[in-house]
Amino acid sequence: MTEAVVIEKETDTDEVGARVYEIGYHINPNKKEDEIEATVGDIRSMIEKAGGSFIAEGAPSLIKLSYTISLKENGKRADYDRGYFGWIKFEAPVAAAASLEAALKTSPDIMRSVLFQTVREETRARFKTQSVREVKRSDILKAAPRKEETAAPVSEADLEKAISEITSD
Fold first, then answer.
1. What's the rounded Cα separation, in Å, for the pair 82 and 85?
2. Is residue 144 part of a domain?
3. Domain of 66?
4. Which entry of 73, 93, 136, 148 is 20 to 30 Å from 123 by CA?
5. Based on the structure, what is the number of domains in the chain?
6. CATH number of the CATH domain containing 71
7. pLDDT tens per residue, range 8-57
8. Which pLDDT belongs to residue 166?
9. Does the residue 4 lie in any domain?
10. 68 lies in a domain?
11. 107 burial via Cβ count (<10 Å: 0-12, 13-18, 19+)
């Protein structure tokens, strides 16, 4: 069997090998609020020790996960359907990315994490909240009556007059 080798191409446009990265992470939902802040502080200190500088950050908030994450804790399996999700965007040397990713994977407080290269600009989509109408069980929703449109015959003269009015401006 042959082994595939992937070579990452480095560009000369990078300033001393620094690139913009973003980390997304899930913290164990059993953590208390002060423990969550300490965990985020640990991630920040790892970035600073690697020579990184912060660009933006999203504070961790408890969310429902799309699927259950199973972890081994104290010799037993634990299933989680919620977790504290947060993210940090930073600039760091290329060599620091691999060590930072490895440190996140071995951290007992982090359930899952992802580190990827991104751009400095704001790229997140803005979400519009939908207006919600409260409906009581006794309310009956009725459809608005439709207005029927009828097409009247148009003469050639009226059509020519409308076109000349539009194009004469």
1. 9
2. no
3. 23-117
4. 93
5. 1
6. 3.30.70.60
7. 334 444 445 789 999 999 999 988 888 999 999 999 998 898 888 888 88
8. 86
9. no
10. yes
11. middle
